[in-house]
Amino acid sequence: MIKVGTYNELKIVKEVDFGLYLDAGHDLGEVLLPKRYVTESMKIGQTISVFLYFDSEDRLIATTQHVKAMAGEFASLKVIDTNRAGAFLDWGLPKDLLVPFNQQKVAMKTGLGYIVYVYQDDISERLLASSKLDRFLDKVPANYKVGEKVDLLIADRTDIGFKAIINNLHWGVIFESDVFGDLGIGKKCKGYIRRIREDGKIDLSLTQTGYAKMDGLSDRILLTMKQHDGFLPLSDKSSPEQIAKILKMSKGNFKKAIGQLYKNGDIVIADNGITVTNK
Question: Rounded to two decimals, what is the model's pTM?
Answer without folding.
Answer: 0.76
